Amino acid sequence: MDADFEELSHDIDLIAKVKQYRDATTKIQDTIKYAANPAVYEKLSDTDKIQYNLLMSYCLNSVFWMYLRAEGIDPAKHQIKSENDRLKRSMTRAKQINDKNTFMPRVNKDAAQRFVRNGLWEIKNKKK
Question: pLDDT tens digit string along 51-80?
């Protein structure tokens, strides 16, 4: 069967969408190459590694979501939806933990010791 794409070459919307799709996949490919570099991962702090891992998981699930859409499968009825929801909850929890550590007041140990030491008083012996 010979494919005749001559009639499709006049559909400007289709051509624009195919070019947009190609550009998007190229950007995704370049980003994944950069993000999958082990040297980049090793330089991250523990908090950044958590965010990185969550982001990579979410990105992979999003790519799979797009694949399902391209295959004509409704991803909202697929198991990937519950996985994306789980990842969103994990991202929210990681943000809460990070915010808690960032905004939690810290006790200055030296200042606390001075307060306690100076707050204690001794009764002087009174002469009767």
Answer: 889 988 888 888 899 899 999 999 999 999
Contact indicator for 84, 61 with CB cutoff of 8 Å: yes
Q: Is 86 left (phi over 0), alpha (psi -120 to 50) or beta?
A: alpha
CA distance 62 to 91: 15
Q: How many residues does the chain have?
A: 128
Alpha helical stretches, state H, 2-125: 12-35, 38-42, 46-70, 79-103, 109-119
Domain edges within the chain: 10-120
Distance from C-alpha of 51 to C-alpha of 35, rounded to nearest angstrom:
12
Give residue-wise pLDDT tens across range 20-42.
989 998 998 888 788 788 888 88
